[in-house]
Write a structure and sequence with these properties.
Elements lengths: L14 E5 L2 E8 L4 E5 L3 E2 L7 E4 L5 E3 H18 L1
Antiparallel strand pairs: 1-2, 1-5, 2-3, 2-4, 5-6
């Protein structure tokens, strides 16, 4: 998946942890609106949890909410360009 995420708590739009059946750290570019770096997948001990965690403020976000906010952000920034 290549969803773009935004943290509503601190406004971070660059670095997140993704927790699903695996754990992955991602880095994304707000200018391009895509992921620029992804870590290797590591097995998660919490197999039933699916959420995003902000690397800056450690706020736990629901995957769908963070992806929807990120999609709106990309749409708004592209309108200004």
């Amino acid at each position: 998946m290549n969803a773009f995420f935004i943290c509503p708590g601190c406004g971070n739009n660059k670095e997140f942890f993704i927790f699903t059946s695996n754990v992955q750290a991602i880095r994304q570019s707000p200018e391009l609106g895509i992921r620029t770096n992804e870590s290797d997948l590591l097995p998660s001990l919490r197999k039933n949890d699916t959420y995003i965690e902000c690397k800056c403020c450690f706020q736990r976000l629901e995957y769908d909410n963070a992806a929807t906010t990120g999609k709106k952000y990309i749409q708004m920034t592209r309108r200004f360009l």
